[in-house]
Fold this sequence. Notes:
Elements: E1 2-3, E2 6-9, H1 13-22, E3 28-31, E4 48-49, H2 56-69, E5 73-75, E6 78-82, H3 87-99, E7 104-107, H4 109-115, E8 126-130, E9 134-136, H5 138-151, E10 155-157, E11 164-168, E12 171-176, E13 179-183, E14 185-188, H6 194-200, E15 209-219, E16 231-234, E17 240-244, E18 248-252, E19 257-258, H7 268-281, E20 291-299, E21 306-309, E22 316-320, H8 326-342, H9 348-352, H10 357-360
Helix pairs in contact: 1-5, 1-8, 2-8
Amino acid sequence: MQSADVVVIGGGIAGLSLAARLAAHAKVVVLEGESAPGYHASGRSVAFAHYGLGNVPVRDLTALSMAELAAHGSVHAALHIASAGEIAALDALEDVHRHYACDYSRAGPEEARGLVPVLKPEACAAVLIDHSSLKLDTHAMLQACVAGVRAGGGAVVTGARVQSIAREGAAWRVETPAGSFTAPLLVNAAGAWADVIAQLAGVRPVGIEPRRRTVISFPAPEGEDVHAWPFTKTVGEGFYLLPEGRGQLLASSMDQTPSKPCDAAAEELDKAIAADRVEQATTLPIRRISHSWAGLRSFVADELPVIGAAADVPGFVWCAGQGGAGFQTAPALSRIAAAAVLGQPFPEDAGAAGLSFAMFSPARLGA
Length: 367
């Protein structure tokens, strides 16, 4: 039996970033079911921090996180492209960038094709260039969190898939193949499995819906050095495209297929759709897919994170539902979650941005 002040279930960016915050105040043990942290959604993220993702609160969290993210990212432009029928959506996105005082510019097809020569003119009738977006080093972010947990006297235990959870007096007891763990506070940061963990603990689920997203990798045009190409994304339904080193490109159709919690794998139809959408908007011929993968992005009904204590069971705290914005919101969201776990006031800068505990509370979802 290993005892701690807080047991965090889930070794993705959500659980690890929170655990690293808590480690300065308490003894924390993180339980990860796989052989290494970040195996599922966190290990399969393209992890590009930009404002073309999520709703207003998610963008606020991104803005609050950008300064800290810069330590584990490099500036890499994002190119948001619009066809003639999507100008209104691009105008709305420009309003977002103006609101957050981003370094951005508007341009037309000629400048867009100067950045990404393979774009067809009709696919980029107008574009917005975010000059300050970040390509994140996800491995470095995860390992920095692991180091933070250990520096505070805590531990990250892998191969610790949860088998049972029981409330014993004022403490939780969690049984895993890696041993038994007990703590008065239990944090559910289990991603796609968050509702499963809640049910094991006798806590009402919040309606976590895992959604599968597929990414394909394929060779860049022969003789073309693509490493400086921007992250390129349609403002509406379509695709995103970005370099993977100098000789490969990554693309996704931004699919969101509902799924059960699982070790997700790319399906042939999803790979074909991603390739087709890229070919429709560019002159790229995708004759061979070098490799592909899929990951699960987890949402609740209103697509906001779920942060806070369960109302029906004491000592159980949610940290789930980050959707596809886990890395780019982790610095701000982990501060909010740490305040919830420790009973501290809501972070002042987040409150000034219009965020609140109530906005993220599981109570809004009946939990």
